[in-house]
Amino acid sequence: AMASREAVRRTVQSVRPILSVDREEARKRVLNLYKAWYRQIPYIVMDYDIPKSVEQCREKLREEFLKHKHVNDIRVIDMLVIKGQMELKESVEIWKQKGHIMRYWKESQEPKPTDFLSKFLSGQS
């Protein structure tokens, strides 16, 4: 009985939220991350010599955050925040390459070639 109680306690512990206690706390973490990115964008644009304006980058930031607005699970929100914090640190510390930053524009602006010749010319063959 003691062993099964211990197993239940461990399981309950593992299901607890990573960081946030409730949705409001998770929301604050998301907003703080958004603000941190928002403030860093001018430096990221400069450091990586990105061919986009600060405004375009901030619009992309907003778009990236809005992609996840439907997420309701606090643990998933916390994981996304942790990933976002890691991305921000990597960007600020210039551990990324310009291509990593520019990848955010890939899906939304450049449709992937579908026919053979276009694929071949873009090096996807």
UniProtKB/TrEMBL annotation:
Question: What is any one of the record's Gene Ontology cellular component terms?
Answer: mitochondrial inner membrane
Q: Which InterPro entries match?
A: Complex1_LYR_dom, Complex1_LYR_NDUFA6_LYRM6, NADH_Ub_cplx-1_asu_su-6
What are the UniProt keywords, alphabetically?
A: Electron transport, Membrane, Mitochondrion, Mitochondrion inner membrane, Respiratory chain, Transport, Ubiquinone
Family (UniProt) = Belongs to the complex I LYR family.
Q: Where in the cell is it found?
A: Mitochondrion inner membrane
Specify the Complex 1 LYR protein domain's residue ranges: 29-90
Organism this protein belongs to: Anopheles braziliensis
Ranked from the top, the taxonomy reads: Eukaryota, Metazoa, Ecdysozoa, Arthropoda, Hexapoda
* Protein name as catalogued: NADH dehydrogenase [ubiquinone] 1 alpha subcomplex subunit 6
Task: State how it assembles.
Answer: Mammalian complex I is composed of 45 different subunits.
Q: Which GO terms describe its biological process?
A: response to oxidative stress
According to its record, how does it sit in the membrane? Peripheral membrane protein
Tell me the domain of life. Answer: Eukaryota
